[in-house]
Design a protein that fits this description.
Blueprint: H1 3-27, H2 35-63, E1 78-81, E2 87-92, E3 104-115, E4 118-124, E5 131-134, H3 143-148, E6 156-161, E7 181-191
Antiparallel strand pairs: 1-2, 2-6, 3-4, 3-5, 3-7, 6-7
Helix pairs in contact: 1-2
């Protein structure tokens, strides 16, 4: 986990602990805990939140990499972040024809949403036919276009899509809650010739 993310987790934990302290004071109509005790509560809350959330994302990466939880997450051949904040992590480069707008492509994918680092599968092609579509046409999610463009046959990627670029504050009905980060594990099965 990047240091900036750990600082954010610490800040979230500190705010949570401070809110607990204020709720305690409101309920008991007293700030009976000394200032030192209150600060200790805030620091402990921050550390607890950081540890819990850090363990959550590590468990997700291990669980969904197809490896036992005692092993490390997959090694990415390349990683980059697009201008819109979408992260593209490539685990297999592929070869042959490239994905381009207007071409028919066949994809296998698993889609997860995360809220506070807890991942939930909400859609997948596993156990059914792969998804075939015309690339660049009206998609369910525009971030796919930027994340998958120029990949080749056989490429495997993970797209991490922030809420603002995904389904935002509206979510997607009962499948995806509001303000959820989306994670798509995608394999480009085939890039077809135009008919």
């Amino acid at each position: 986990m990047k240091p900036i993310h750990k600082l954010r987790l610490l800040a979230i934990g500190a705010v949570f602990a401070l809110l607990c302290y204020l709720a305690y004071a409101f309920v008991f109509k007293s700030f009976a805990i000394s200032l030192t005790g209150g600060l200790a509560l805030v620091v402990l809350g921050a550390l607890a939140a950081a540890v819990v959330l850090d363990l959550g994302i590590s468990a997700f990466l291990n669980r969904h990499s197809g490896k036992a939880s005692t092993k490390t997450a997959p090694q990415w051949l390349s990683q980059h972040t697009l201008k819109n904040g979408v992260q593209v992590l490539v685990s297999k480069i592929g070869s042959g024809r490239s994905v381009r707008r207007g071409r028919r492509i066949v994809l296998e994918y698993s889609a997860y949403h995360t809220v506070v680092r807890r991942a939930t599968l909400f859609d997948t092609t596993a156990g059914r036919a792969p998804l075939e579509l015309t690339f660049g046409a009206k998609h369910r999610l525009g971030a796919w276009t930027e994340g998958l463009e120029f990949l080749k046959d056989g490429a495997k990627v993970r797209l991490i899509i922030p809420p603002a670029v995904g389904f935002g504050w509206n979510g997607k009905g009962p499948l995806v809650p509001p303000n959820a980060t989306l994670i798509f594990d995608v394999e480009v099965v085939q890039v077809k010739y135009n008919d």
